Amino acid sequence: MKRSQSVFLIGPMGAGKSTIGRLLSAELKLEFFDSDKVIEERCGANIPWIFDMEGESGFREREEQAIDELTQMGSIVLATGGGVVMREANRRHLSARGTVVYLCTSVEQQLARTAKDKNRPLLQAENPERILRDLFSVRDPLYREIADIIIETDQRNPRWVVQELKRLIKG
Ligand SMILES: Nc1ncnc2c1ncn2[C@@H]1O[C@H](COP(=O)(O)OP(=O)(O)O)[C@@H](O)[C@H]1O
Ligand SMILES: O=C(O)C1=C[C@@H](OP(=O)(O)O)[C@@H](O)[C@H](O)C1
Ligand SMILES: [Mg+2]
Question: What interface predicted TM-score (ipTM) does this complex get?
Answer without folding.
Answer: 0.99
